[in-house]
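Q: Make up one entry.
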Amino acid sequence: MFSERFDQLVQALRILPSVGPKSAQRMALHLIMKNKQGALALSEALSDAADHIHECSICHSLTENEVCDICLSQDRDDTLLCVVESPADVMAIEQSGSFRGKYHVLGGHLSPLDGIGPEEVGIPALVQRLAEGQVAEVILATNATVEGQATAHYLVEATRHLNLKMTRIAQGVPQGGELEYVDSHTLSQAVHNRMQMK
C-alpha cells in the first residue's frame, strides 16, 4: 500500500491476539505518523524482552533469571502449589493478592483433537515435581473450559498414587453478579460447589 516496510509492520502487528488487518493498519499509522518516539521505544522494549525473558526452570512461568522470584522466595509456602495454564494466570492470581504458595505453569491444556497431550503441556514434569514430596496440596486453577476441566481431571488421575490433597478453584457466580444474568452452566457450577454458611 504505502510501502513494503509499512506492509511488513502491519503484518507483524497482526500476530497479536485479536488484532485484525484494520486494527493493525490503525496501529501502524498511529506509530509512524503520531508517535515515532513511542514506536522506537516499543521496538527496543520488544527486542529486549525477546532476548532476556524466558521460562523459569522450576515453575515454567516467565523470568529473566534461571529461577523466578516466586520460586526463590522464602516467604511463600512450599507445600502449596497452584497449577495454571499460562503465565497470564499467574499474573492474575498474584494481582489478587490472595495466594502465598508457589506455582506450576503447564503452558496450555489438554486438547487431543489438536494433538496436545500430557507431554506437550508438561504433565510428566509436574508429576515428577509432586513426587519429590515437598508439596502437600495442589490447587488446580485451570480454566473453566471443557479443555481446562479435562486437564484438571487428568491431573487428579495422574497423581492418584501420590499422597496429596487435590483441590479445584471455586467456580460460579461472580462477585457482584446478579443471578438473572448468569448463564445456566455457571449457575449450575455455583449450586454444585456451594459453601456451608452454618
The longest strand covers residues 77-84. The first helix runs from residue 4 to 13. The radius of gyration is 21 Å.
